[in-house]
Amino acid sequence: MPSKISQLVTGQKIEVQLSSSNVPARFYSEFIGAVNERWVIVNMPDARKYNDMRDLLQEKTPVIVRFVLENESGEICAFRSEISYVISHPTKMLFIMWPNQIEHRIIRKGRRFDAFLPASVSGQSVKGEENTFRGHVLDVSESGCRLKHEKPEGKIDELWENGSKIVLKIEQKNNGDLTLKAIVRQVKQVDDQLELGVQFMGNQKDEVNSLFSGSLVDIDELSRLESST
């Protein structure tokens, strides 16, 4: 069980649901750290997005915590616990009691293959703005892919969050442009780019098969990118 929490990285997005609420009250925040066998520590949710909910976050409030592990198999993990402490200094944080049990399940159906394909990412941001970014697919599986795109100015938590719906337009020389609808499951900042772990939406079997039927690496694009750095 501790190995699941130990695989979390600082700044990783997690979902916290207030399980005592009469309405579905949940928010997305960032993992700060953990004290083994005692606490899981997360940021207090952003006041601009979750101001009404912050008043509900008190000691002994029961919660459900969910997070995605981008390991070899890809897992979604969840546990029930309660808030132990709410502190304000040096920053506002929630100390969640160490869980007795973590439930987890595999989210990738098959093997993940390395790739390098130019792509564009389009979708509505957390703030409701329409965005399109250029990037590259880094690996693919039958159920999703990992990709990078340029990092815009501003805070990354105002762009995508777990559950954001996006459209990928992947460029393959043999198959032309391939369009896939996907859901963001993980967001990380890597240097000056954003790295997304995304899950393909259902009823796109033909499109996914088309992706695998062509080359997964664009040699010309890879050479061009390496020569420009």
TrEMBL record:
Keyword Transferase: yes
Signal peptide: none
InterPro entries for the chain: PilZ_domain, Split_barrel_FMN-bd, T3SS_YcgR_PilZN
Keywords: Bacterial flagellum, c-di-GMP, Nucleotide-binding, Transferase
Lineage: superkingdom: Bacteria
Residue ranges of domain PilZ in the record: 125-210
Pfam families registered for this protein in UniProt: PilZ, PilZNR
Transmembrane segments: none
GO molecular function, one term: cyclic-di-GMP binding
All residue ranges annotated as the Type III secretion system flagellar brake protein YcgR PilZN domain in the record: 10-99
Name of the molecule in the record: Predicted glycosyltransferase
Organism: Idiomarina loihiensis (strain ATCC BAA-735 / DSM 15497 / L2-TR)
